[in-house]
Amino acid sequence: MTTDTPVLNADDFAARAGKRRPKYVQVSELLIREIKAGHWREGERLPVEADLAVELNVAVGTLRKALALLEDDGLLERRQGSGTYVKKPPKEAAYQLFRLELLAGGGTPHADTLKVSREKNTEVAAHFGLPNSTLFWRIERKRFLNATAIAAEEMWIRASHAKTLSAQELDESLYRHYREHFGFWISHVEDRIRVATATSWAAGILGVTNGTPLGWIERISWSDQDRVEEYSRTWFDPSVCHYVSRMA
Description:
The chain is α+β, with helices and mostly antiparallel strands. It is 27% helix and 32% strand. It folds into two domains: 16-86, Winged helix-like DNA-binding domain superfamily/Winged helix DNA-binding domain (Arc Repressor Mutant, subunit A); 94-243, 3-Layer(aba) Sandwich (Chorismate lyase).
């Protein structure tokens, strides 16, 4: 699949990414995303520190600093002799890195995985900084807010992460799937947004005419090892949703 978008490679993105945040901050953000996604619910006890540190592939000291940060924020509660419990869910939306909202406000995000294919793509390889011959898994998804279809999304990851991959086995939360099955987690992302015309693929998913102007998001995602692990392109319908980024 091709697009008329300019190629921005991994080095270009890395140059803009800024100084890498401390590991314990990255871990705290990962835990927040897991709590938001319902992996641990309010009142539930987290795994013991030694087990959780192994699961996240971090030192126990790093994990403790992350837990202390969330405790200071009022998200976790440590009970002497019992463990660490989720005190309350974070205030932000359910998907921390999902930025699309209905024009009327909010909307619960979910996705249908339509197809998974193993492909070569020279433009995608350039974003990863990899040879043109590199194989990738291309994941096609249709995104919804409530019952409204709002976006056509394609994600690319290295094919070396799995010998086989199907739409049926993928968790709706791909970031969780990456951590549990591929051994890495997404620590930070960068988005670039502009207007792009709908390709035939995106137009078919969104039910618009081929060539219709749509919102377009290019995202590159880094792992906890500071390596580019996912590249994605999303076409969204600006007549029903918009991109929102809130800062505090």
